[in-house]
Amino acid sequence: MIYLIRSHECIDSVYTDGAYDTKRCRQYISHRQAHAVIPPRKNARIWKDTKAYSQERNELLRTIKRLGRTLWK
Length: 73
Known about the structure:
single chain, mainly alpha, two-stranded parallel sheet, 3 helices, 40% helix, globular
């Protein structure tokens, strides 16, 4: 769960580990108009919805598949 102490502050990016690779976290970060920098889990699958945060994550998964996880990191 992501907790923000001051909800009126502007947030540019949120950096977390793969444990936060959930729709709920990405939706909250997107709602705050911030950029999510979250590596997908190793067993991640493409999300079928058309939300912007889902499409961004799906593109990241495609890039990892194309380059390999080690090179991507």
